[in-house]
Write a structure and sequence with these properties.
- The protein has 10 helices and 17 strands.
- The strands form 3 sheets. Strands 2, 3, 4, 5, 6, 7, 8, 9, 10, 11 and 12 form an 11-stranded mixed beta sheet that branches. It has a 4-stranded antiparallel beta sheet with strand order 14-15-16-17, with no helix packed on it.
- It is globular.
- With 406 residues, the chain is of the alpha/beta class.
- The chain starts with a strand and ends in an 11-residue tail after the last strand.
- Helix 5 runs parallel beside helix 7 and helix 6 packs across helix 7.
Length: 406
């Protein structure tokens, strides 16, 4: 997507109160959490009070798009570039290795004095020079591969995960989400003189569907399927941890100085509520690529404001750099555009600079899917691409896309 902004930037307006001051930034990314997996999005069965409260205090982008699978989305978030440029083709079989010379958002923040940390799922390469510690993160606590229990750490599970702490293999005790947030909260308390970039890319509610009975039982008792009950239980645990993190920011007195982003990496697996959106994970219909996106920065961004303009994962890199007063690199090419003008309290005129914005293009072995839009018109091609392949065409404008549409 290409935005031409004809207004003063958020940096000039929102950072005028303290020239040279840079906000702390926290990015929480969930795994396979669909647009409908929040109470605030009309799901009456789920229980996410802390995230719902966060959404009410945050600015929300109602049409925010990602790739339909995790590694491509994560690569675009880290670089501001379409995933194919970064070496990421898919999520497995050697296709989830980001080029070691990609310039990441962590490197950009580290290079201007930020502390940088990652706690969760990296999934962009397990070996040098593709590891998070090779890509700008100073403190790392991650699991390898695309999920806990996968190669090379097949002796792990969600309650006894094998994690990698600053490059060293450890056999941890405790539930994975709890451990990642515990590490993140410890990071928050260190060296409070420096701003920080904290990345919490979680592995829930991705399979395996494992969570303590105390979290899933209530949903089973309400008549939900076992799989959905476990997914909602995993998200309830996430919600508790997210609430504890927000409380820690307030306890430390840094909540007003901290910009927090919450989003997901792709749509949900099939079989549960997804706000009537068509499609699911691994699918380029809207249900597979449209995700929750909320950003909170007290006294700087308007709480409860909702923006219906189209935006995507590639825009996060330039947006956060601009907000922090960091120069956006010109080489290599950055595909995203800063959304800073859209986040401002003042009106802004936005236009699309190109005919199309490519939301998702991924290759799964021999099959590919593509979705592209110019703001008013969308085309979807699912399955095998060929020179004479047929596209489904939709009018999307700024209306909601529901079942039977995109």
């Amino acid at each position: 997507m290409r935005f031409a902004a004809f207004a003063f930037s958020l940096l000039m307006v929102l950072c005028a109160s303290g020239a040279g001051e840079r906000p702390n930034i926290i990015l929480v990314l969930t795994d396979d959490q669909g647009y409908g997996d929040l109470g605030v999005h009309g799901n009456e069965a789920i229980d996410t009070p802390h995230l719902d409260a966060f959404a009410s205090q945050a600015l929300g982008m109602e049409r925010f798009y990602v790739n339909p699978l995790c590694s491509p989305t994560r690569a675009s978030i880290m670089t501001g570039r379409y995933h194919l440029r970064t070496g990421i083709l898919h999520t497995s079989r050697g296709a989830a290795k980001m080029f070691g010379d990609e310039y990441t958002i962590a490197e950009a923040f580290r290079n201007v004095g930020y502390r940088t940390g990652i706690f969760g799922k990296w999934h962009l390469g397990d070996n040098y020079p593709m590891r998070p510690q090779d890509q700008g993160f100073e403190e790392t606590l991650i699991h390898k591969s695309g999920g806990i229990g996968q190669t090379p750490d097949t002796d792990a599970d969600y309650f006894n995960p094998v994690l990698w702490l600053n490059g060293e293999r450890i056999k941890a005790k405790g539930y994975c989400t709890d451990l990642f947030f515990e590490g993140a909260l410890s990071f928050l308390k260190e060296d409070t003189e420096k701003p920080f970039f904290l990345y919490i890319p979680l592995n829930v509610p991705h399979t395996s569907l494992v969570v303590a009975d105390q979290y899933s039982r209530v949903f089973e008792e309400e008549g939900l399927s076992e799989a959905t009950a476990k997914i909602y239980g995993m998200l309830k645990n996430l919600d508790d941890n997210f609430g504890a993190m927000m409380a820690q920011l307030e306890t430390q007195g840094i909540d007003d100085d901290t910009l927090v982003v919450f989003m997901s990496d792709n749509g949900p697996t099939r079989g549960r509520y997804n706000a009537d959106l068509r499609g699911a994970k691994a699918n380029v219909y809207e249900g597979g690529i449209r995700v929750p996106f909320y950003v909170r920065w007290p006294d700087r961004l308007e709480a409860g404001k909702r923006i219906d303009r189209i935006a995507a994962h590639i825009d996060l890199f330039p947006t956060l750099l601009e907000i922090a007063g960091i120069d956006i690199p010109q080489d290599p090419v950055i595909d995203g555009k800063s959304l800073a003008p859209l986040l401002d309290r003042e009106p802004v005129v936005i236009g699309m600079a190109g005919p199309y914005a490519v939301y998702a293009a991924y290759k799964i072995h021999r099959s590919s899917s593509l979705s592209k839009c110019n703001g008013d018109h969308a085309e979807v091609q699912a399955g095998e691409l060929s020179e004479d392949g047929q596209c489904e065409s939709f009018f999307c404008g700024y209306c909601e896309s529901r079942t039977g549409a995109l």
